[in-house]
Design brief:
Radius of gyration: 22 Å
Low-confidence stretches: none
Mean pLDDT: 87
Order of helices and strands: HEHEHEHHEHEHHEEHEEHEHEHHHEEHH
Structural class: alpha/beta
Distance between the termini: 44 Å
CATH class of the largest domain: Alpha Beta
Number of strands: 13
Strand content: 5-15%
Amino acid sequence: WPYCQKRCSYCNFNKYIPRGLDEASMRSCLTQEARTLIQLSQVHRISSVFFGGGTPSLASPQTIAAVLETISRCAHLAADASRLAEFRASGINRLSIGIQSLDDAELILLGRDHTAHEALGTLEEAKKLFPGRTSIDLIFGLPGQSVASWTKGLEELLQQCDDHVSLYQLTLERGTSLFRQVQQGSVPAPKQEVVAEMYEVAREMLRDTGYRQYEVSNFARNGALSAHNLSYWQGSQYIGIGPGAHGRFVPRAHGENLREARIQTLEPDSWMKEVQAFGHGTRKRAAQGELEVVSVSQYLQWVSPLLPHQHWLQFAPSLSLWDVFGTSVEVKELEDQGLLLLDNRGLRCSWKGLAVLDSLLLTLLNQLQQSWEDR
């Protein structure tokens, strides 16, 4: 759902302020594109449906219900699928709330249109509707933010949140209001050593509160992992529907066997015209070679703590993890530093390694490419 009520100062997502929105036409196009792309993929079972944006809660429950009903008619939709009082009745069974901060001054800096008090009220209502299935998003590393203020807000939230927490380091995206403010010196740039300390403090606080870190940014307790996120990390096919959506699937209805990366037209009005004319609004499509599929799949898997041998072999049956990484001097150095471990379970990051995973990925992906070329 590409629409927002206002633009947050840090966000460079594909989003639009609605002016004279015809939701019935948007709903019709969303359901049409869902039918077209599911038929093209010849996928018979959908494990999860995720509504993103923009601000997906601005869509009416009727639109959410129409999309879910269309998908369930085109493919089997698992009863426990993770879908976004009225939304629950539409079929939504998991909710993610963008609280971002409990400091009102920080919320103003971020351009949010809610207060900390309002965010906590929404959280309480969501927990009543979706007990055990309400996630919160938090941003750290804001200009002027201290470790003490971050810790204080996180402590308060951990007393009230549900079983899933996502932590995101602020990225100053070119073209956003906040990027310009930092460039002009009107707000201070975040200090990287302070940001790193915030992340480490948060990881320890979440661990001590019973949360398990299962991805770089995501923490869960009581088994409340996001099934939809896990499907990405496991390299599953996914279909993107709506303006600016992206997907990766094999278009089997066209007789293809290679997975394609597909991007839908960004601008909503143009996208709707294309859907009405062609049944979908795919703007770009590119076939992915075997190495690219393996690289993408394993990159995604590496953002979780463990890459099992059996999962690796689904994508690269001709090369084992031992073949690729077992004789690498660079990987051995990372093992010696206590950052990685390759054993009979698979390749995995240590607690220490998860904190610096981005730097590890470059070594791992370079080693994968070299082994692929040498085979």
